[in-house]
Design a protein that fits this description.
Elements (H helix, E strand, L loop, with lengths): L2 E3 L4 E4 L2 E4 L9 H5 L2 H16 L17 H12 L12 H14 L4 E5 L6 H13 L4 E5 L13 E9 L4 E6 L2 E6 H4 L8 E8 L3
Antiparallel strand pairs: 1-6, 2-3, 4-9, 5-6, 5-9, 6-7, 7-8
Helix pairs in contact: 2-3
Length: 206
């Protein structure tokens, strides 16, 4: 398979529909500006709830069935109580992973998180993305600093990887309610003061 894109969650926003959620739906200004981390956590949890309704049973009802902006924002705010950014945002992937698991635990859901080793080279990390997407799971992607101009708009930012195109060496990400294609070799830069990270989740016992 050279290309694969998950059937990611769609959210009704009035007469339109978004792909995933938008951090700027948070009503408070700071929560909106710093909200990319909890937003990705909420949409990934909602996606998993649709894929594994038995293993994820216990999450709020709005994470199942038809998703609408008003109720999904309530879900985002609940997740943010655990996956909570600091003054500089949410820059610690360990904290993100553990707090996403802890939120699920608070709902009675046993979740496991798997981080992609930041020491992997581009080829190995891209293969990990392909295998995870092919297994039906999105990945949360964090890019802090990055030297490539085409990634400038995606730095200091969490987004959700929902697909890939091997022919182009790209990943498909969802952020701000829309899909974007990014060159993975430009995204995955660790070292020299630059940092990126990825993690994916799965209900235990499924």
């Amino acid at each position: 398979m050279t290309r694969n894109t998950l059937d990611f969650i769609k959210i009704k926003d009035g007469r339109s529909e978004t792909l995933g959620a938008n951090q700027y739906w948070f009503p408070q200004k700071f929560a909106a500006l710093s909200g990319c981390g909890p937003t990705t956590a909420a949409e990934i949890l909602a996606y998993l709830a649709k894929q594994y309704p038995t293993g994820m049973q216990g999450l709020p009802p709005e994470s199942f069935g038809i998703l609408e902006r008003k109720t999904f924002v309530q879900f985002m705010r609940a997740v943010r109580e655990y996956v909570k950014p600091g003054v500089m945002g949410l820059t610690d992937i360990d904290f993100y992973t553990n707090q996403t698991i802890n939120y699920a635990k608070s709902c009675g859901v046993a979740l496991q998180g798997t981080q992609i080793d930041v020491r992997l080279d581009t080829k190995a990390a891209y293969q990990a993305v392909i295998e995870t997407i092919d297994a039906g799971r999105p990945l949360a992607l964090l890019v802090l600093t990055n030297p490539n101009p085409d990634i400038r708009e995606y730095t200091w930012h969490w987004m959700t990887i929902i697909g890939y195109d091997k022919d182009k060496g790209s990943i498909i990400i969802a952020t701000h309610g829309r899909p974007h294609a990014l060159n993975f070799s430009h995204v995955w830069v660790n070292g020299g003061g630059h940092k990126a990270g990825m993690v994916h989740f799965m209900p235990k016992g499924v």
